[in-house]
Amino acid sequence: MLFILELIGTVAFAFSGATVGIQKKMDIFGVAILAMTTAVGGGILRDIILNITPPVAFREPVFTLLGIAVGIIVFFFEKSHFQVQKRPIYEVLLNTMDAVGLGLFTVIGVQTAYTNVAETNVYLAVFVGVVTGVGGGVLRDVMAGNTPYIFTKHFYACASLIGALVCSICWSFLSPITSMLIGALTIMVLRNLAAHYRWSLPKIE
């Protein structure tokens, strides 16, 4: 089940990375690399924090290769059928895939912390979960020359934080997979509501 969740999250984040690359008019190599970085970047940061070496992305290349494959597929599909800048549906699809990736990778980060650290507390689990969830997106935005999405758009990192906290609290009372599903669902709902109603934290205009 965990492997399946990781595969779904990888595809979701790779799609969002590839879409950003296409919007930036990158070539196929740039799109593929941005897709891969978005897909595995958060997991690499997670493993470094938890001293899991080498990171899973380098020991199990299926996730890296899947990210690259998704990037290439999205590149040719868009080139043949769509213009991203002119298709509002792409924005909806990007937000949806990003929400799925954020939810799944956040709770996978929580699970990894509880599994690999003997005396994990809620703070460590939540911190690792959020880093895993938003890390790939931050790397994606930096490489694309954008201000990281988590600092400017909607209710993003906070949704990851709330979902990680919900997952960690449930961890003591429910099974790991149930806790993860509840946490991931919480994040997905919050992200989609934030995108629909344009929830944002206060900022100086």
Topology:
Blueprint: H1 2-23, H2 28-49, H3 56-59, H4 62-81, H5 88-116, H6 122-143, H7 157-171, H8 176-197
Textual characterization of the structure:
By secondary structure, the chain is mainly α. The protein has one domain (2-197). 76% of the residues lie in helices and 0% in strands. It is built from eight helices and no strands. The chain has helices at residues 2-23, 28-49, 56-59, 62-81, 88-116, 122-143, 157-171, 176-197. The model has no long low-confidence stretch (mean pLDDT 89).
Task: Using brief descriptors, characterize the structure shown.
single chain; 205 residues; mainly alpha; 8 helices
Largest sheet: none
Euclidean distance between termini CA atoms: 44 Å
Give me the number of helical elements: 8
> Which residues sit in consecutive blocks of at least 5 with pLDDT less than 50?
none
- Provide the gyration radius in Å: 16 Å
Sum this structure up briefly.
The protein is built from 8 helices and no strands. It has 205 residues and is an all-alpha fold.
